[in-house]
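Appendix C. Worked example: Translation initiation factor 1A
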Amino acid sequence: MTENEGRRDLRMPEDGELFAEVLDMLGANRVKVRCADGQERTVRIPGRMQKRVWIREGDLVLVEPWDWQDEKGDITWRYEKSEADQLREEGHLQ
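Step 2, the predicted output written as structure tokens:
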């Protein structure tokens, strides 16, 4: 068994993006998340993700906070459970 067997290359946060955990589904395509910087934000699920990607409480997502209103933002990516576990094992999340 090699060291990298089963390892996948995952999408990492780009400039302005943060890891976040989904805390609560608010309805109307809005979600409450706790970001890696410790702040809770109300973020929206953009139209391109609404019918294609199902987001549930406890999921790990990437969030891009808004420039003009820091307590809000957009979800840019959702990780599968196995991908979230891999990120935790590699030390990207606390």
